[in-house]
Amino acid sequence: PADTVPAAAPAEGAEPPTPAPADDRPKVRLPRFLRQRYVVHVGVKINLTIPFTGKPKPVVSWMKNGQPLDTKRVNIRSTDRDSILFIRSAEREDSGEYEMCVKVDDFEDKATLVLQIVELPGPPASVKIVDTWGFNVALEWTPPTDNGNTDITGYTIQKADKKTGDWFTVLEHYHRLNATISDLIMGNTYTFRVFSENKCGISEESTASKEEAKILKTGIEYKPPEYQEHDYSEAPKFTTALNNRSTTVGYNTKLLCSVRGCPKPKVQWMKNQMIIGDDPKYRQICVQGICSLEIRRPSNFDGGVYSCKAINDHGEATVSCKLEVKLPNLSQ
């Protein structure tokens, strides 16, 4: 019975005259977690095992960024089933694209893995106070020159009163490169410092502002609107448009729309692009943004395109509709 097992093997793949099955060809079995960027912190030991198959024993070779590996930094140990990439203590210069190649005769297979060695970022390159007014200070800073080999994810901003010198966090995980620090105490003098942050954590050092901000007791002067409360002004916008309508001669009809804007828009009604004005045939009302135009006892000459235009200091908007005035159906 033991002889029957190998006898079945040639029968399966008997089609090609030469029994060189594809299973014997070299193949790198790159683990799933290495198929995307492999990120580790500086100082961590890297020990990666990459299995492969192939008969007879494949020849294994490695490259980094297209160049031969520096064996002083990276140790490679290969068996007939796998290859191990070992780095005792990862440094940033170990980052890069590593290519493993397995070869048997004229057949070869390659796989690539990307190592990214990251560490804490440096502090911001500079921090400055750009304005002081009332109980507020405007700060600006620039990104660190060293991001730790990975993206900066935010900043932590701290303030210290000159009297005590104690630091307090006012913003953290903050994404922008400028901030307004408010609710400062009258009569105190403040300095500020900023830390950088990436996926490894917060920079060990910070960068402090060279300037100080003194919150004056008297003569508090508020600067122009860029630092004042939110500006609610907006150009007119119709929130409900005019709908096409059909009416009968002699029956009053009303056109309705609604508009918003700040300051309150001036509303102007038009018929066929001519301003209606104070024509007594029409009654124009606009209350809390709801605008209506009543057409009294229309004749068949009152059909056409009616428009409502809203105007304020920030712009204008217009909506239009068609009004059809039909003769009464006398046959009924």
Tell me briefly what this model is.
This is Myosin-binding protein H. By secondary structure, the protein is mainly β.
Describe the fold and architecture.
- Keywords: Cell adhesion, Immunoglobulin domain, Muscle protein, Repeat, Thick filament.
- Residues 1-15 have a biased composition (Low complexity).
- Residues 26-98, 236-320 form the Ig-like domain.
- Belongs to the immunoglobulin superfamily. MyBP family.
- Residues 123-218 form the Fibronectin type-III domain.
- With 332 residues, this protein is mainly beta.
- The chain folds into three domains: 27-118, Immunoglobulins (Immunoglobulin-like); 128-215, Sandwich (Immunoglobulin-like); 234-326, Immunoglobulins (Immunoglobulin-like).
- Helices cover 3% and strands 51% of the residues.
- The protein has one helix and 27 strands.
- The protein has one helix spanning 4-12, and strands at residues 27-28, 38-41, 46-53, 59-64, 67-68, 75-78, 82-87, 96-104, 107-118, 126-133, 136-142, 152-161, 167-174, 178-181, 189-198, 201-202, 207-208, 213-214, 234-240, 245-248, 253-262, 266-271, 274-275, 282-287, 290-295, 304-312, 315-326.
- The strands form six sheets. Strands 12, 13, 15, 16, 17 and 18 form a six-stranded antiparallel β-sheet that branches.
- The protein is flat, with a radius of gyration of 39 Å.
- The model is unreliable at 1-14 (pLDDT under 50).
Short key terms for the protein model shown above:
single chain, 332 residues, 1 helix, Immunoglobulin-like, 5-stranded mixed sheet, mainly beta
